[in-house]
Amino acid sequence: MLVKEIMSDRKISVSSDTSLIAAARKMRDNDIGCLLIENDEKLLGIVTDRDITCRGLVSGLDIKDMTVEDVMSRDIIWCAEEEHVEDAVRLMEKNKVRRLPVIAGEDGHLVGVLSLGDMSHHLSHHLFGEVIAAVSSPKSLLPTLISLR
User: In terms of residue numbers, what domain contains 23?
Assistant: First the structure.
């Protein structure tokens, strides 16, 4: 099974100068946990609800003055739409991420997101349980979980 067969092509993005409050509202209104940061369909970063909370609210800065750029992750873990889902699973496990932006073509334009929710409908219970355990465990346990396979 390929990533493009199960990913969500509903990509919701904002620009890096979007306020954190506007980003949080957009997540709430769309019932999602992350926003993609892009310019001309090129992925610049990703911001999650956790980023807003852990990097934004506790930074000591005035949340009203902060933008997505202040808290977004720039080192993006992504996958290609033509990759096998099992490879994407391993990438998520290794990097402890719950969502992967999906890139297509040689120009690397953004086409969607692959999330744990997408996987839950298509993977075996065993494989899905494995990925949930790996991405949810403390970082100190990750090498142990991977070596147990």
Answer: 3-147
Beta bridge partners of 43: 38
- Strand locations in 67-108, DSSP E? 79-80, 99-104
Tokens representing residue 19 in the block: 């306020």
Domains identified in the chain, total number: 1
pLDDT values of the chain reduced to their tens digit, one per residue, 149 residues: 999 999 988 889 999 999 999 999 999 999 998 999 987 767 889 999 989 988 888 877 888 999 999 999 998 899 999 999 999 999 988 898 889 999 987 777 888 899 888 888 887 777 778 888 888 877 654 444 444 44
pTM of the shown model:
0.78
What pairs with residue 104 in β-bridges?
109
